[in-house]
Every structure is written in structure tokens, then in C-alpha cells.
Amino acid sequence: MYDIRWIRENLETFDEGRRRKGLEPLGASLLALDDExxxxxxxxxxxxxxxxxxxxxxxAAMKAGDKxxxxxxxxxxxxxxxxxxxxxxxEKAAIAKLNAALSxxxxxxxxxxxxxxxxxxxxxxxxxxxxxxxxxEPKEHFDIGESLGQMDFETAAKLSGARFVxxxxxxxxxxxxxxxxxxxxxxxxxxxxxxxPPLLVRDExxxxxxxxxxxxxxxxxxxxGKATGAADxxxxxxxxxAEVPLTNLVRESIVxxxxxxxxxxxxxxxxxxxxxxxxxxxxGMIRQHQFHKVEMVSITTPEQSIDEHERMTACAEEVLxxxxxxxxxxxxxxxxxxxxxxxxxxxxxxxxGQGRYREISSCSVCxxxxxxxxxxxxxxxxxxxxxxxxxxxxxxxxxxxVAVLENYQNADGSVxxxxxxxxxxGGKTLIEAV
Length: 434
What we know:
Layout: H1 4-9, H2 11-20, H3 27-63, H4 67-103, E1 123-128, H5 141-148, E2 151-152, H6 153-160, E3 166-167, H7 169-188, E4 193-194, E5 200-201, H8 203-208, E6 220-221, H9 224-227, E7 237-238, H10 243-247, E8 253-256, E9 262-271, E10 290-300, H11 305-323, E11 327-331, E12 343-351, E13 356-365, H12 369-374, E14 376-379, E15 385-386, E16 388-396, H13 397-407, E17 415-416, E18 430-431
Parallel strand pairs: 4-9, 8-14
Antiparallel strand pairs: 1-11, 2-3, 5-7, 6-7, 9-10, 10-16, 11-12, 12-13, 13-16, 14-15, 17-18
């Protein structure tokens, strides 16, 4: 979220950032809203100051024996009291109007982010590994899983509808193994602190990481009444990613600079309505309403955040390297990056069944964009400053399962278990049909 003072002082930079994202200039209209806010505040302050001054003058008039003046002043105070409610309401409305406008403005991309309209304009940074060669026609993951008798979309649809799956037997264990392997890697080798956060969060947490208010339709509300405008102080949301609770661990707090960077990881269920994905990936596990993901979050100083972004991306890459999965790193263009991001790398894993690379991780640096929404700061000798926040998938376990099934499939329908996962699978090396 932007500071309106920064926009006022950097109007051309702000509008240029919007242009790079393919958006219309907005600075002038925001300054007009800020002028309204300032005028409303000034009007309210002036009324309050006059009311206080008149109240003091009543005492002086009474002391001087000037009853007529005292009565006139009393009438003025009474009139001001009657109008103060409306003036204060006008002030609150002006502030709310500006804040609402600011809350729906996306972050500005960093200068090295390439300009572009959509995913077709993303830039490949590097590749790792060679796609496997098969002497048979490779299958997609859902054909493999269903043939194994351990991936059931039909029953899931009966239970919950579309975009759900029931995993059974060794496939259920394989997804769990992937989660455990990733968490152990990030904790033991990358220095992240494992956290087990709530899966239900309040409005303030979703606002802090910018899921609300702009992307309400993409979220699952635990109490739908609130989503339609009904008052409900106990309203919660199912988390779309562990980024939400992990990042909000520092909301409304001041962290000691010596403790930064903070690095946290969590393996959780995630829930997404996929409102904008109608007709896309309707079969299989690529785009589910409920899925497992290991998330990484870093809280840093402004000076640390760019290097931390590269480090976080490397941590996600290490997962794929150890799993032996071919992948490429893509730098997202201005038109494809997320709402809160300044710069994003996507890791795309090779899926032989589809014959193309698909996203499996997204690592973003957000600058102080989320910190301002959360009022998350750190202490310096010159006073508190806003932290910088970063988040990245390390990685999506469901999509990692998809990638393992497709890259490690055999002609007879069985699936080899990657070596790093075998200790988590009780020493098994192969998954076969049941």
C-alpha cells in the first residue's frame, strides 16, 4: 500500500510505474482525494479549536460580568456541538475514500522487471536439467494416478465438487513425503524456522498481505455472511497460502534490526476459489481448490531484500534439483506479476505428459508494500522503518507430485520414487498399481 505523501512527492515515478504495468495514470485523482481529506481534516480541526476557544471565552465573559456575551458564546458552542458530528463524519468519509483507493493500487515493479502484457512476455533466466526421454508415449499425471488406483477425482467430486482429489495409499504417502522433505531441507539446510500457523485468519491479516479487498472473489470465506456485507466480528478466511499468516506474524510490531532477516517456512493446506480460472486445467491436480504447499517468508531490511530474493529463489530451486526434476526460471514481466510484488521469479517444472513447463513455485519481493498495510516495522538508531517482505513457494507439493509422477513414470504404469524421497517412503523405490 502506498503512502500518499510519497505519491505527492514522486508523482511522475508513480504514474510511470503504472504505465509499465499497462495501467492508466492515477496520481492526479489520488492527489484530489488527498486534497479532500486534508480539507476535511482542516475543517474538523478548525471547528474543534473554535469550540475549545469559545468555551474558554465563556468563563472570561462570566468573570467580567458580560452575561450577553457569555450567552452568545454558549449559543455558538451549542451550534458547533450540533455540527461537529457531521464534520467528523465528513472527515472520516474522506479518509476512508482515500484509503480505499490506495488499497486497490498494485505495487510498482522494480526497474529491471521487463515490460510486457502477459505470460508470453516473461523472460527465461536459466534452465536446469534435461527433460527425460521415453521409449513410450508419456502419460499425464491423472492417467497415471487413476491407473495406479490411488488418485480418485470421481469420489472427490461426490464429496466436494470439481477441483478436488482423493489420494490413497502410496500416492497419499508420496505427497506427505514431499512435504516432509521440503520442510527438512528448508529448516536443516537453508536456515528457515518451521512454523505451524492457523489456517483461518481474520480480515486484517488478508488485508495485510493484499488478498483483500481487491481479490475477495478468489478467497474462501468461512462465514459467507460477511462477504455479502453483513456485520460479523468473528468472520474468518481460509488461507490461500501460508504467506498470509507467516507474513502477518510481524504485523503491528517493531522488530529489532539485529533479528533480521527473519526466515520462516510452513507446510499447510491452501484454499483458493480459482474464480478467474474457468475452463483452465479442469482435469487433474494442477489447479485445485484445496492443496498442500510449503511456503517460505522472509522479513528483511530494505538493504537486504534484493539479495534475499535471489537466495529464496535458490532455495526453491534446490528442492527441484534434489528431486531430479528439470525446470526453468522465468522473470515475470510487468503485466504478469502479482498485485503485491515488485519482482517475481517463477520456477516452471517440465511435465512430459503435457510436453511443456508449468509453474511450480513463485518467489516475490514486495518491498515495504505489505509492511505498510500491516504497520510492520523494525527499530533503527534513527527510529522505526518499515520492513521489506518476501514470499516464495518452496514448493507446491501437489504440483511436485504431478511432476514426479510424469518424470519418473515407467512403461508398465509404475512410478519410480526419487532417491531423496525413499527414506520418507519406508525405503520403497517403486509405486505400483493396487
